[in-house]
Specification:
Strand content of chain B: 25-35%
Number of strands of chain B: 32
Helix content of chain A: 25-40%
Number of helices of chain A: 9
Largest interface: A-B, 29 and 26 residues
Shape of chain A: globular
Oligomer: heterodimer
Strand order of the largest sheet of chain B: 1-2-3-4
Strand content of chain A: 25-35%
Shape of chain B: elongated
Number of helices of chain B: 10
Order of helices and strands of chain A: EEEHEEHEHHHEHEHEEHH
Radius of gyration of chain A: 18 Å
Distance between the termini of chain A: 41 Å
Strand order of the largest sheet of chain A: 6-7-8-3-9-10
């Protein structure tokens, strides 16, 4: 592993769907133990970027590197060290959380089912209700428990609070903060929920029109702009839009 | 990531997929009891209904599972759940495909087992499962997956898929049709099995590549799938088409085993039908016209689809009907004098429908054909019939030309297996008239042999049981003589000799050869052998008959007894050969080559036998 590169980096990542450009030449590094918030509006390409980061989708150009290894080529080895919470809950809908934990555990060499069960208990998830019948917040909580069950070194959350109420959102981020405190896990979170990440993010990147238009430490950015994060985001994206025009 | 975890993952994923679709097995269980509770189903019919329901069930299961285990998860964004785990692609893909296979086969077994075990019905032999069913279902699952991925990807590649599928399908269908026209049915079990395994391998490998290289990106997966599947199937289809062309380009030297051969009158041309060597289809039995003197040849086609060929008296011309059993038969005419000999398609001025017999006039100018409901005579090359007559030809019914150019044919009765009357119809192309000129009563199941110039017709009645033989005038049908009464022989074979005499072989407890004059007077009666069994007779040289002896026990081949009819004595016994001209191919008087009799030896080779010396010359074939 390249210690300077950090556990996650994007190197000139470009994604296109046919003639549609989603991301263009995006590069950034997430340092170890850092919480990196990648901000962008809906359709900014955040989910496509996450799929490339976890080796589920091949970039048109450039590459995603996790722990010094190519995410597409070394997906299997890397996924033992990475936990993912996708934007849309993707667990098999007919399985109950209890069976889901058991099933997922069989796919890992190292799996702490008690820890995962304890998380679900904290979220008050009904263990025998099929996953497809859970509320959106409950599904997110289950996915988070599944993502943390093997104690990952890197946690990637793709808009984890999308569609959640304030209470559920606080629960999710509370869990992430707990994880950070316990294990020092590196976190990449994509979101447009600026208020939620303001308290936990170390570094912020802003995606706009397929490009990374801002990438710097949160505190430095606040100091530079002397504005709340929401205003900074608005300023940066409108400035980029003006530049693009 | 250890192999152990990967395999464990594969099994876990397979178990989950099966569990998710357990309702399919429940449906199978419900279908399994249908043959036992349906009030209109007798005990004896249960296996058939069970087999039908099992077939429907496995096809349904293959389509449902094949189209959903991967494609649905991919389209609904749920494949990421598996790909986010540290298991290799083959573990995920393998688990899902294993589940599809298990569900498909289990559903079939659940439906079929009670019907199969609850009766005396036996399942097909084990080889059938491996040759046809297994690759067929694997291919079906793979095709369902490919179609579902292509459809759900909603990309322009789908149009390309459809275009390529249509093009290759057309190529394969056209090649198969051509092969079938040649009588080379391409779907014999071995070839069908190989094709199914190839298809199964192609769609399975393509599905695996789609998963490995496309992962959660359905459009990329679809592109990979298309590239792989068409990369495999296009060369295979082209190879099949090339093989089909090659199969049709057979030469006499490609004949491995000669089945039958009949010579042209007064010439060296021989029509030969036989089986070809591998890798042509086992069932392929083409016919060729071959000039034994110059080795020139013409391809006629596959024996089962061809009526003829028949020669003109001067051997200037030969004609045959290709695709005779279809509604669109084609009349082919060969110019045997040209160098090289040529074949052309000529008009066949008859209504749509199969052709059961064809004849060529002595001068090679007129053609006569028999169809199910009419006989017609027309000038070769003309699109207008000269004479047409309604007939009832329930099966093969020969038509022959007399020296005066008129065509003679027997037809009827309405039920060919029952007693009735055969109508003798004569068609006169000179006047354009056709008339029923006589009637021949029959005990049913009759077949006829025509003598030279259509002057006489011999009719064997009730071939299958207690046959009898009568000789009639070829123009009026008047009975000339009753040659073999009912009950005397177990079976009868007849052939007219070139001089008009009739050779009759009666077999049953023994084999007796009798020869009758054109007036029905017996001139020779000779016991050939006391052996029981079927026998054939043919004139192999002027005045010389060859009697093919029945085969018994472990004897590998046939022996023939040569009889000098004029001298009334056996010339000798020839071992390991039988006359080449089957009476099936020579409905009229057979041509007799002066250069020596044609025989087929035990190895399937066509040999010319010098009657005087016994010297044998292999003309072609022999495995």
């Amino acid at each position: 592993m390249n210690a300077e590169a950090g556990p996650l980096s994007c190197e000139h990542l470009t994604i296109r769907y046919g003639r549609t450009r989603v991301l263009e030449d995006v590069s950034f590094v997430v340092p170890s133990r850092c919480v990196y918030a990648l901000l962008g509006r809906n359709g900014a390409g955040k989910s496509s970027l996450v799929r490339c980061l976890v080796g589920q989708q091949r970039a048109t150009a450039g590459r995603a590197v996790l722990f010094g290894r190519d995410a597409w080529r070394d997906r299997v080895g890397l996924m033992a060290r990475v936990g993912l919470v996708p934007e849309e809950p993707d667990a098999p809908p007919e399985i109950s959380p209890a069976r889901l934990l058991a099933f997922t555990g069989r796919l890992y060499a190292r799996w702490d089912e008690n820890d995962a069960r304890e998380r679900l208990r904290r979220f008050a998830i009904p263990m025998d209700t099929p996953f497809g019948r859970l509320s959106k917040g409950q599904k997110g909580a289950v996915q988070l428990a599944l993502a943390l069950g093997h104690a990952p070194e890197l946690l990637i959350l793709d808009d984890p609070t999308l569609g959640l109420d304030v209470v559920a959102r606080d629960q999710v981020f509370g869990e992430i903060i707990g994880e950070l405190a316990d294990r020092g896990t590196t976190v990449l979170v994509t979101t447009h929920d600026l208020a939620a990440i303001e308290g936990i993010a170390d570094r912020v990147g802003v995606l706009y029109d397929g490009r990374l238009v801002l990438d710097e430490p949160l505190e430095a950015m606040k100091e530079r702009f002397a504005l709340p994060l929401e205003r900074i985001f608005a300023e940066v994206t409108s400035a980029s839009a003006g530049g693009a025009r | 990531m250890s192999e152990r975890v990967a395999v464990r993952g594969l099994m876990a994923i397979a178990a989950r997929e099966v569990s998710e679709r357990a309702a399919l097995l429940g449906l199978a269980a419900m279908l399994a009891v249908v043959p036992f509770v349906a009030p209109w189903i007798g005990i004896g019919d249960r296996p058939m209904l069970g087999g039908f329901l099992a077939t429907v069930m496995v096809f349904t299961a293959a389509l449902l599972t094949g189209s959903s285990v991967i494609a649905r998860d991919l389209a609904e964004g749920r494949l990421g759940f598996f790909l986010a785990r540290p298991v290799p692609w083959w573990s995920i893909w393998g688990g899902k495909m294993l589940a599809a296979l298990v569900l498909t086969f289990a559903a079939g077994v659940i439906v079929l087992a009670p019907s199969a075990l609850g009766s005396e019905w036996l399942l097909p032999a084990g080889g059938w499962w491996g040759m046809i069913l297994a690759p067929g279902l694997v291919a079906l699952i793979g095709i369902a997956n490919a179609l579902a991925v292509a459809y759900r990807a909603r990309s322009a590649w789908f149009a390309l898929d459809l275009a390529l599928a249509a093009a290759l399908g057309w190529l394969v269908a056209r090649t198969s049709r051509t092969l079938m026209d040649w009588g080379a049915f391409p779907f014999e079990p071995g070839v069908l099995s190989a094709a199914l395994w190839l298809l199964a391998a192609a769609v399975t490998i393509a599905g695996a590549a789609q998963f490995a290289e496309g992962r959660a990106d359905i459009r990329r997966g679809h592109r990979v799938l298309s590239v792989v599947v068409w990369s495999l199937l296009t060369p295979a289809a082209l190879a099949y088409a090339a093989w089909g062309v090659w199969v049709g380009r057979f030469a006499p030297a490609d004949l491995r085993t000669v089945y039958s051969a009949w010579p042209s009158p007064n010439g060296s041309w021989i029509a030969v039908a036989g089986r070809t060597r591998w890798p042509r289809p086992e069932i392929f039995t083409p016919t060729v016209l071959m000039d034994a003197a110059t080795q020139r040849f013409l391809r006629v086609g596959g024996a089962p689809s061809v009526r003829g060929p028949v020669f003109s008296e001067d051997v200037r011309r030969a004609v045959w009907v290709a695709e005779a059993w279809t509604d669109t038969p084609r009349l082919m005419a060969a110019d045997l004098r040209s160098n090289p000999p040529s074949v052309s398609r000529v008009p066949l001025p008859v209504p749509p429908g199969s052709v059961v017999a064809v004849a060529l006039s002595a001068d090679g100018e007129n053609v006569a054909v028999v169809q199910r409901s009419q006989a017609a005579v027309f000038k070769l090359g003309s699109a207008q019939a000269l004479a047409v007559a309604p007939v009832r030809a329930s099966w093969w019914r020969p038509i022959v030309f007399a020296r005066d150019g008129r065509a003679h044919v027997l037809s009827g009765p309405a039920d060919p297996l029952s007693p009735g009357v055969l109508d003798l119809t004569v068609l006169d192309p000179a006047t354009g008239k056709a008339a029923t000129t006589g009637h021949i009563p029959t005990r049913g199941y009759a077949f006829e042999r025509w003598g030279a110039d259509a002057a006489r017709v011999a009719v064997v009645h009730s071939q299958a049981r207690r046959p009898s033989l009568t000789l009639h005038d070829g123009s009026t049908g008047a009975l000339i003589a009753s040659l073999v009464p009912e009950g005397r022989a177990g079976g009868i074979t007849v052939t007219f000799m070139r001089d008009g005499r009739l050779a009759v072989l009666e077999y049953g407890r023994g084999v007796v050869l009798r020869v009758f004059s054109t007036e029905g007077a017996e001139s020779l009666s000779l016991e050939i052998t006391p052996t029981f069994g079927f026998a054939e007779v043919a004139e192999v040289a002027p005045g010389v008959l060859a009697v093919e002896l029945p085969i018994h026990g472990a004897a590998a081949g046939s022996d023939s007894v040569l009889v000098d009819v004029s001298a009334g004595r056996v010339i000798r016994r020839e071992h390991g050969v039988k006359p080449a001209a089957s009476s099936w191919f020579a409905p009229g008087a057979q041509a007799v080559p002066d250069a020596g009799g044609l025989f087929i030896d035990d190895r399937g080779a066509l040999v010319r036998l010098d009657i005087a010396t016994g010297a044998r010359q292999i003309l072609l074939g022999g495995s």
